[in-house]
Amino acid sequence: MGPDETHGSTALLTDHYELTMLASSLSDGTASRPCVFEVFARRLPDGRRYGVVAGTNRLLDAIGDFRFTDREITQLASTAVVDDATLDWLAEYRFRGDIDGYAEGELYFPGSPILTVRATFAEGVVLETLALSVLNHDSAIASAAARMSSAAHGRPIIEMGGRRTHEYAAVAAARAAYLAGFATTSNLEAGRRYGIPTGGTVAHAFMLLHDTEEDAFRAQVAKMGADTTLLVDTYDITQGIETAVRVAGPELGAIRIDSGDVGVLARKAREQLDSLGARDTRIVVSGDLDEHAIAALRAEPADAYGVGTSLVTGSGAPTAGMVYKLVEVDGRPVAKRSENKASRGGQKAALRRHKPTGTALEEVVYPCAAPPEPGEYDRLLHLPLMRGGEPVENLPTLDDARALLRRRLVSLPWEGLKLSRGEPAIPTVFP
Amino acid sequence: MGPDETHGSTALLTDHYELTMLASSLSDGTASRPCVFEVFARRLPDGRRYGVVAGTNRLLDAIGDFRFTDREITQLASTAVVDDATLDWLAEYRFRGDIDGYAEGELYFPGSPILTVRATFAEGVVLETLALSVLNHDSAIASAAARMSSAAHGRPIIEMGGRRTHEYAAVAAARAAYLAGFATTSNLEAGRRYGIPTGGTVAHAFMLLHDTEEDAFRAQVAKMGADTTLLVDTYDITQGIETAVRVAGPELGAIRIDSGDVGVLARKAREQLDSLGARDTRIVVSGDLDEHAIAALRAEPADAYGVGTSLVTGSGAPTAGMVYKLVEVDGRPVAKRSENKASRGGQKAALRRHKPTGTALEEVVYPCAAPPEPGEYDRLLHLPLMRGGEPVENLPTLDDARALLRRRLVSLPWEGLKLSRGEPAIPTVFP
């Protein structure tokens, strides 16, 4: 659970206005009003049929590290962000409220109350930016990754997008991809922090470093054994495969093709490998793959996919668009005037209704003050996550989240897994 | 220059295969071959007319912190990523090579050699992932931000997108936005790390916390003075403005409108403010603005813009698509076979040709072995950035980069600043 960034404190990963709101509310006494804040997405990214909750455990860790040490206080004082009374309050800050929410790996839909924070205004408002940063990023990546995993239909996907996003976003993206079913990541820090299996062999640079392709293959096989993956598309692919099998023998683990029309090339490669007796040599394809490209490769003899850019950029939806809204003050529902935004005041929870077969029917988002009678096939969606500022015991792990999402995707109506643009897989109802 | 993340080491922000390539090359002796690696983008994001280099100074810092301490070595050993000989080599690693490149804030075009790394294969290859993560992220954000700054036509833009991206990407995004001309950021950590001015007042939560809008305005004005920005769109905007001026007086600093058709609302608000005698009260608009929305507001009385999601997601282009390619080994140009990718071997540099008026004409990317005769209006684009692994003295600062970009945008042909999709503003030529 150890923090790594910012010498242990996450407190300045925060918008200036959270602290000026705090200062004003401390002055007029409203800071101590009991409040409920809710995280939800008004809509799914354009045409998406479901979202995947991710980042919850990262957020709980980050809340534990949300402390204003001397360094933070000095910075705020020197830039006059807030007055001394507010600085004194911040120096003592730790979150002591309660948090409920959807499990990591759970599906969400428009209006799903993904996270509910109960605390004084002061304690809750300062967490807004951090909560949204973590959940918006990780959920966007996991939501895209789940579509890729579905498209891959059981074939493994290797996450290799770290170079296309911020160096620390890369680590979180690898985690979200693993949650959503990816097999491995290239990112070594994700391996260290989260125990995700890492993998990789060589890039074209290694091929070009050597005087000949054969020299490079020999060096790699000498070091990593014949069960490695040889990159065969640096010069001529047919020649590359011939050389690869000659150097490694028919027990060659895999070849990788990273350019060109990888579907056509995979088919030709399979034929050539078979003709060379390398029937068990696998074919890994990579190079600008997204969920649509993966789906298009289903009939081709590609055994594994490497995915980079499209994963870390959320495949067109790089943020989940979640908001953190004050919904209750002193037990009274509150909401901004709203013409076309769905703003509903009051503390809410949710359950998902299912057919007897287990297929999801609808997301019911209800006021906690008036819960519906749960039916036989309904599933309550809120878990306790923090009590009195402490994470609850036995929080679901990353592996739990991965397993949960796998089960939940099976519960979607079949149209819900279509990659084409459409409506949310199930409607959200507000009784 | 102090690192904050990962207890000071950036070494595991790296793809697994960089280290397996290293291991194989150490085994066969090719690791020590002198090499040149080049960072460039094959193309600009779809329809963009220029790119902005950003992240260089962040990268130089991160390279200084690229060390394999006990923690990294233990992790790599326990997961058997590489053998003991390679671990011994890594434990001693520090970069000792030379780096040249474009200044931060410089424009770039397809094929521009943004960064050139000269080192042994071993020393250079391990930096690939980190270099690309930093440059791809920061340049994507700065490139989008520059378009927004152009569209704003001198009106200030407030960066407020941190909640829509990974919590540390948010800090780098605020830096890139400032480089590209934004006035302030909401991100407090960006204020601490980079000295960027931060700002903010209140969110709707502060309004809803109070029993009435007037109570909220009074609390805010009592704390922050009349020169603050009051958020007037929580309930009814006309009523909100009336109350705001009544509470703060005509010396009210600004109002903010965060929803609805902000152009129409700004016009009506201006009339109302003027009629109330608040002629100097400014109007800040926010809410899903991008460069196109900003441009559309040019004729409206909006005095400042708040921009969030579109900034941190690169306004449709969240990554710059730069690659880090081995272009020279032992003095010989090398390049992958390529059908439609522009892969040119050999160490290169660049100059930009201009008309006598100062308008840019073309980007000339030439082999260092055969430099062209620079003309009177040509500008050489490579600066020394590192020598022997140490940053050169007097590196341009963030403020230098901000000033440079402002000058460079003026040098573009006028079509280059159009927001519509088009070709790169100037062609890249390879003599």
From TrEMBL, chains A, B:
A Pfam family reported for this protein in Swiss-Prot or TrEMBL: NAPRTase
Disordered: annotated span: 336-356
Ranges in coiled-coil conformation: none
Keywords from the UniProt entry: Glycosyltransferase, Ligase, Phosphoprotein, Pyridine nucleotide biosynthesis, Transferase
Organism superkingdom: Bacteria
Top class in the EC scheme: ligase
Nicotinate phosphoribosyltransferase N-terminal domain boundaries: 12-136
Catalytic activity: 5-phospho-alpha-D-ribose 1-diphosphate + nicotinate + ATP + H2O = nicotinate beta-D-ribonucleotide + ADP + phosphate + diphosphate
Pathway given in the UniProt record: Cofactor biosynthesis; NAD(+) biosynthesis; nicotinate D-ribonucleotide from nicotinate: step 1/1
GO molecular function per UniProt: glycosyltransferase activity; nicotinate phosphoribosyltransferase activity
E.C. number: 6.3.4.21
Nicotinate/nicotinamide phosphoribosyltransferase domain: residues covered: 158-342
UniProt-listed InterPro entries: Aldolase_TIM, N/Namide_PRibTrfase, NAPRTase_N, Nic_PRibTrfase-Fam, Nic_PRibTrfase_pncB, Nicotinate_pribotase-like_C
PTM remark: Transiently phosphorylated on a His residue during the reaction cycle. Phosphorylation strongly increases the affinity for substrates and increases the rate of nicotinate D-ribonucleotide production. Dephosphorylation regenerates the low-affinity form of the enzyme, leading to product release.
PANTHER family: NICOTINATE PHOSPHORIBOSYLTRANSFERASE (PTHR11098), NICOTINATE PHOSPHORIBOSYLTRANSFERASE PNCB1 (PTHR11098:SF8)
Family assignment from sequence similarity: Belongs to the NAPRTase family.
Protein's job: Catalyzes the first step in the biosynthesis of NAD from nicotinic acid, the ATP-dependent synthesis of beta-nicotinate D-ribonucleotide from nicotinate and 5-phospho-D-ribose 1-phosphate.
Protein name: Nicotinate phosphoribosyltransferase
